[in-house]
Amino acid sequence: MQMPEPDRAALGQRSELVARFREFLPSDSVVVDEAALRAFECDGLTAYRQPPMIAVLPETTAEVSRMLKLCKAAGVKVVPRGAGTSLSGGALPLADGVLLGLAKLNRVLEIDYPNRAAVVQPGVTNLAISQAVEGEGFYYAPDPSSQIACSIGGNVAENSGGVHCLKYGLTTNNILGLEVVLMDGEVIRLGGRHLDQPGYDLIGVLTGSEGLLGVVTEVTVRILRRPEVARGLLVGFDSVEAGGACVADIIGAGIIPAGMEMMDRPAIHAAEAFCHPGYPLDAEALLIIELDGPAVEVDHLTEIVRGLCEKRGAVSLRVSASETERLNFWAGRKAAFPAVGRISPDYYCMDGTIPRARLPHVLARMAEMSGKYGLRVANVFHAGDGNLHPLILYDANEPGELERAEDFGADILRLCVEVGGVLTGEHGVGVEKRDLMGTMFTEVDLNQQQRLKCAFDPDGLLNPGKVFPTLHRCAELGRMHIHGGRMPFPDLPRF
What we know:
By secondary structure, the chain is α+β, with helices and mostly antiparallel strands. The protein is built from 17 helices and 19 strands. It folds into 5 domains: 8-101, Uridine Diphospho-n-acetylenolpyruvylglucosamine Reductase, domain 2, CATH 3.30.43; 108-225, Uridine Diphospho-n-acetylenolpyruvylglucosamine Reductase, domain 3 (2-Layer Sandwich); 230-337, Alpha-Beta Plaits (2-Layer Sandwich), CATH 3.30.70; 344-432, Alpha-Beta Plaits (2-Layer Sandwich); 443-495, no CATH class. Helix 9 (240-252) packs antiparallel against helix 14 (359-373) and helix 14 packs antiparallel against helix 15. The longest helix has 18 residues, at 401-418. The chain is globular and about 70 Å long. One of its GO terms (molecular function) is FAD binding.
């Protein structure tokens, strides 16, 4: 995995930039100590590490604006960072860049119950939004497994989902407005507290843009009323194929559960040993289904889903009898990633999305790949929308195992595209999937995406080296011609 070569001119400006930052930021908000910078050297994709040149921790939009304006004038790269939970290397620093940490922008600014909205800063954690409004019977629907730690700004950058995204949508479906600072320091506001806005969907463009277009400093989210009833079903099957077929049956019957997750045998056993949620250890596959709404509706749908599960040969079926039991069903699923960490020194968490009907085929192919690479895999996924999270187990201390795990993961993602799916469902591209973008997109597609990047950041200073497999300067796009076998501007770095 190659990143841009460090710019010596940028490195030479380090002392001057530190002095300029300290003109408007407290000394401890400008991190330069080598040991302290190690705290920012990676995100959740820990296989890749690189300390930044400087880390800056502003507390206001005005400070973010001034910091970006200084970096723009100096021609220095900037990598935005939320809580650092990204699993695709989206917040991997650059040796010649400034890491912009947004953790200190962590206030809930306003809760507007009549308009069912909350205005928060990007450093507020996902779960903290629901906690702030639960007293009035509201919550924020997207709930990634890392919701106790991941920040809403990072959720916007990656378009995060969670177990309830099947019915309530991902981050993009739950955002009403954004305040964004562009690379030149300009502050723009998009949307508001209204349902929709005229013109181009710039909120949609920014959501999922992985920090390449602008820095989010305020988010207006949609909050929802807690449903009258939420009920969980814990269903075991004697094969993954039967569980996958049951998922298709439920969706085919016109039922959209609030959440529908699947775990295979290795993940079931790891979760049960970790937090004891009462999972059936004799099952090869486990479905966790949640139905919510008015009590009479949930009662009716519960019986329909029970019947569909039994027709597919469910070997066990429990319906939650209390809120505590329902939350316990989810506890194992939410803790699946750390649970797997107890049974393997390291694991590589993948993220791809496939058509639901191809689930049995894809799982069978992954089992074949597991044998080919000699590495175990535990499967945890959002079954309802086909978003897979295979966990490839390896030991980084064993020579060659990390490389095999990466090759295994790349083959899984190629398989997702092959069957009609996509490279990522919610974790983003970052550096992890960057060099696989050509599997899904043509050169024309990628150039068009980079033109959008150029419209926001013409100098390519925001989070460079991520998402796009080939570096283009904005002046090149649409103007690159090969004549006589010679490429113009041969001195430009391309990776």
